[in-house]
Amino acid sequence: MPNPLGHLLEVLRLEQVDDGDGSAADPEHFRGASVHQPSGRVYGGQVLAQAVLAAGRTVPAGRLPHSLHGYFLRPGALEVPIDFAVERLRDGRSFSARRTHAIQHGKPILSMIASFQEAQDGFEHTSAMPSAPPPQDVPSALEVLGGIDHPVARFWSHHSAFELRHVGGSLYLTPDAEPKDHQMVWMRARGHVGDDQLLHRALMAYACDQVMLEPILRQSGTSWVTPGISIASLDHAMWWHRDVRVDEWLLFVQSASSAQGGRGLGAARVFTQDGSLVASIAQEGMVRLPDA
Description:
Protein name: Acyl-CoA thioesterase 2
Organism: Cellulosimicrobium arenosum
Largest sheet: 12 strands, antiparallel
Subunit structure: Homotetramer.
Keywords: Hydrolase, Lipid metabolism
Radius of gyration: 19 Å
Family: Belongs to the C/M/P thioester hydrolase family.
Mean pLDDT: 93
Strand order of the largest sheet: 1-2-4-5-6-3-9-12-11-10-8-7
Order of helices and strands: HEEHEEEEHHEEHHEEEE
Structural class: alpha+beta
């Protein structure tokens, strides 16, 4: 794939199937395809991004998503188109709420509610960004995996639309030598995205699903290739605080507060290089270890 970002942007161009009236009985429908994945299943971040874009197509001009809450309900099939049914829950003076179901074979694979807001003035505060080495001083996935002749390694290093740089080392091939419940990752799209802020926010939802559960793996002494490990996203919550550009470096400051019962909770704060907090994210996932 010579241009993975370009391919992803094409996949995110949803087709409107019908306009409906936005009610639960007659939602507005959009349709999209999927990006190939080595797992053979639809990548959850892709469906999340498409659901954000579908909902955003139905809100008044000037309103951008500030939060979403979604549940991943079923695995998605790569070869089957995904239908997105959008319900207009509310349009107030400055906020709009939408519910979106992503559907295959007549059953939802994702259910999401998102809230949108017009730009408004208000009290300003942001937490400070922790100290981190600049992205140019951190090895990229291409540097770590580029010489490995394995389809998954090639996908992570060459076919991903985003460049990832793990501070302190990645979990692609081996566990952390010093298990811990936190990590920092620099991330940036592999090319220019344009100026559509709805698209940038949707792409952030796409990208973050790659790393949200990694602090759980790091703490448990496992990696993505640990034999017998089973991982799946269960739910996802996200808050956008400020405008963001995913084609500029973003620092994901991550933690895992708990793991139990085959589940774990990951959290992230996302900063720009100049230290502005642009988003907060939480995700619970199924993480079943080989001896569990």
